[in-house]
Amino acid sequence: MSLDAIVARPRLQRWLDLVLTTEPRQRASLVTTGWACLLMVCCVFSLELGAVAGLADPQLVRWWSLGSGACVLISFALIRSGASMGWRDPAFTHVQIAYAITSNAVAYAIADQARGITPPVLAVIMMFGVFGLRPAQIKVLMVYGLIAYGVAAALVQCWEPLGAMPVELAAMYLLIVAVVLFTSTALTLRAHAMREHLQGRKRDLSQAVEQVRELATRDELTGLPNRRHMQEMMRVEGLRAARSGQPLLMAQLDLDAFKVINDTHGHAAGDLVLQSFARLVSGCVRSADILARWGGEEFVLLMCNTSAQDGSYLLERVRSVVAATPVQLPTGATIELTVSVGAAQFLEGEELASLLERADEALYAAKRLGRNRVVWATR
Ligand SMILES: Nc1nc2c(ncn2[C@@H]2O[C@H](COP(=O)(O)OP(=O)(O)OP(=O)(O)O)[C@@H](O)[C@H]2O)c(=O)[nH]1
Known about the structure:
Blueprint (H helix, E strand, L loop, with lengths): L2 H18 L3 H29 L5 H23 L12 H18 L7 H10 L7 H24 L8 H51 L9 H18 L3 E8 L2 H8 L1 H18 L5 E6 L2 E7 L3 H17 L2 E2 L5 E2 L3 E7 L6 H17 L5 E3 L3
Parallel strand pairs: 6-7
Antiparallel strand pairs: 1-3, 1-6, 2-3, 4-5
Helix pairs in contact: 2-3, 3-4, 4-5, 4-6, 5-7, 6-7, 9-10, 10-11
The chain binds guanosine-5'-triphosphate (GTP).
């Protein structure tokens, strides 16, 4: 590769970065304006060709080309500089379309024998309304188009240098312009409605995906993470603890004599107790800890970056808060509650299944020893 090419490449890269490296909303506005710019270049080229061929006044066409080009460049600069990013529509589509309609009507007035090219361009301009305009704005722009063309047609008829034409021909042009405006507006409105519909469907779909995700990871009764989600969290936290060497604790919490509660007060009361227990424990643990419903009346608490001493203190607090907070039923009855806890500390190189097993054994020891207590697993 030549030295020139090596030097030129970063420069080209800088130019490309300058035009393309933008945030997504800004990039979308630049792309829309880029299309408008392309349309404008084609129109300028066609009218300049008409002027060279003697079909239109070259001086008027030159001024029109300069004015139109300047407006497109200003739009581009406003978007690229980020000056329009605070606006509701950073591409200020309605302003750009209004300006394009004006430019198109002026082209109609000055294009003399070449004015036949302007109505189809008007249709394309109206189509840009699909991007971000409200239906009311599209309709206002249609009315504005009719007025702009009406004024341009009147100018052509009244001012000789613009190349007056037979009234019948002027009426034909106006009729075609009106048809173009109505039809393109109707099509634009239809495309707009379809776009809105699709966006609505997309929103519904994202909500449904979010719901499915929620259902797949949450326990419906308590709102806590469910067993499947907890297994994933355990895997992630286990890897983190192994990598960082930070202490990781796991506790299994099991409500005592829960069957008796169900049998005495009914299944619905049992559900209320489970919800109340989940709330109580959630209120005791730190936001970094993860409490999940493991199944039935059994819960698992994962305490990340927690020393055995802090863990002991926390679990004892959970136990005493549960024991000191009877659950009030809607019937007026109160249920005294206790919880047995089996806890274990993650050992270096240990499998998660083994950690869970040790916590489970400690839980059974707590039950055997008379319930309502915290037992730590031995190594
Ligand atoms: N209300 C309600 N009960 C549940 C739910 N899931 C499991 N259970 C009940 O929880 C009870 C658990 O009973 P056991 O396994 O004998 O445990 P326990 O009575 O707490 O006895 P210990 O654990 O030995 O203290 C069973 O009666 C299950 O039917 C639930 O979602 N709602």
